[in-house]
Amino acid sequence: SSISNYSSSSSSTRGNRGKSSTCSGRSCNLDTMDTDCRAVFWRSSSSNSSSHSVRRGSRSRSFCSEVHRQSRGFGSSGGSDGGGDRSRIDRRGSGGGGRGPGNRFDPDTSLQDLLDLGAMPSEVEVAEVLARHWSRWAGHPGRTITWLKGLAQKGRPETAAALLRVARSFEVEVGTFHFNITVGACVRSGLWETAAALLTEMVGGSISKDTSTYNCMVSLCGRRGDLDRALALLSEMRTRRVEPDVVTYNTTISAFDRGGRWEVALRLFAEMATRGIRRTVVSYNSAMSACGRGSGWEVAFELLAQMYDCALQADVVSYNSAITACERAGRWTLALCCLHAMTESALRRTAVTYGAAISACEKDGRWVAALALLGDMESSTVKCDVVAFNSAISACEKGFRWEVALSLLAEMDRVRLKSDSVSWSAAVSACEKGAQWQTSVHLLSHMASGGVAASAVTWSSALTA
User: Fold this and answer.
1) Where are the beta strands (DSSP E) in 206-286?
2) What is the pTM of this model?
3) Spatial distance between the Cα atoms of 204 and 202, rounded to a whole number of angstroms
4) From the CB of residue 123, how many other CB atoms can be counted at a distance below 10 Å?
5) Whole-angstrom Cα distance, residue 172 to residue 64?
6) Would you state the pLDDT for residue 381?
7) N or C terminus: fewer CB in 10 A for the chain?
8) What pLDDT score does 167 carry?
9) 18 to each of 14, 117, 120, 355, how far by Cα in Å?
């Protein structure tokens, strides 16, 4: 099915060294490629090759055989050799672009030329680079993959997208594998519109989709919050007999976890076992995170125990997810047990670990345990943050310890942490419970002078005191 509903109709302007090209949101094939870009390509390639003439009507047999040899297997996961998922192969091969010593291809130099174009080059600039290396590139069509991988590793997804489009426009063979590399780089860099446009070009160019392609599409849907579409893609894979793998399920579970639909996330996690897909640490972490959002602390601990039964080593994220589930359910004792287990497993606690544990103590008014955790946090290499202090102040407020709450508020200023409205509101509420109305008014005055807006709840606590 088409994914045109995800494509961007608007084009993105790319400015680099005074040049611009509106090519981000459209398909650039041989018929629609800018005339200037094609002219630059052929003019430059002709001038850079004295012994290897590049003619539009010629075909190099060695080039074509090399294309089929190196690109075999880049098709769909259904077992085809990729013949139905590629663009037209190059018909402008070099007349003598062989592998001789005088014509050796240097991928590092070619890749560096592309990197020197900057983060957002135009297609004309990319075509100029290809023209300079054309006589040698024509004999090594697999180098397109080398370039795309290099650009993806260097964090240049825009350049990779421009390279892919220019290569297609000049009939260099590209297939599923080329698109997967480029789309994946765009998704990882947060270029959702560019990734969606490339996927639309992929469908329009009759290039088949494999498991990696669907993984990129599901990730794109998750980032854009279109969870129903992500679930539909999972069903589409089964219909087209493209087997989802562990990455597919992990990506989908994470998307539903972030979207707050924890029931669907847990159902997909259970589906992995029924389909014989081995769960990984990432799978368990995403499922436990979903349990935290749904206050399913019992399931979270059951999953944590299952990890050990499956010989999977729980990591910091695993314990953080379990502690967060305990925090939302108010199970502060279990949260402290998780902290102890992390110490025994030689896992380093993070700010998220301490913040969730202190918050769990705060919900039950366990101010002594909260202060102990805050002190342990300060003595370790973990930097205290505003969230941890706010939870500790709230714990003191619920434990009727207004003096300790004020001392924590002063401590925040000492360690150069900017207190926010939550910090002051908890301190005012602590004074209200301690019948310290003068101190409450004094805190309100400090809030006004510090530019912190007092909420209606804060004013109500001060008046009640």
Assistant:
1) none
2) 0.64
3) 5
4) 24
5) 10
6) 83
7) N
8) 82
9) 10, 12, 12, 48
Distance separating alpha carbons of residues 457 and 425, to the nearest angstrom = 8
The amino acid that residue 302 corresponds to is E
pLDDT-derived band at 447, boundaries 50, 70, 90: confident
Which pair of structure tokens corresponds to residue 293?
């959002």
In whole angstroms, how large is the CA radius of gyration of the chain? 29
Helix (H) or strand (E) segment spanning residue 22:
strand 19-22
Q: Within a 13 Å sphere around the CA of 390, how many CA atoms are in the beta-carbon half?
A: 14
Assess contact for 13 and 25: CB atoms under 8 A: no
Q: Cα dihedral angle (308, 313, 316, 320), rounded to 10 degrees?
A: -20
Distance CA 262, CA 256 (A): 6
As given in the structure block, the two tokens for residue 323 are 């502690």
Whether pLDDT at 67 is above 50: no
Rounded Cα distance, 162 and 121, in Å: 8
pLDDT in tens, 332-366: 999 999 999 998 889 999 999 999 999 999 988 89
Round to whole Å and give the CA distance between 228 and 149.
31
Q: In this structure, how many other beta carbons lie within 10 angstroms of the beta carbon of residue 26?
A: 17
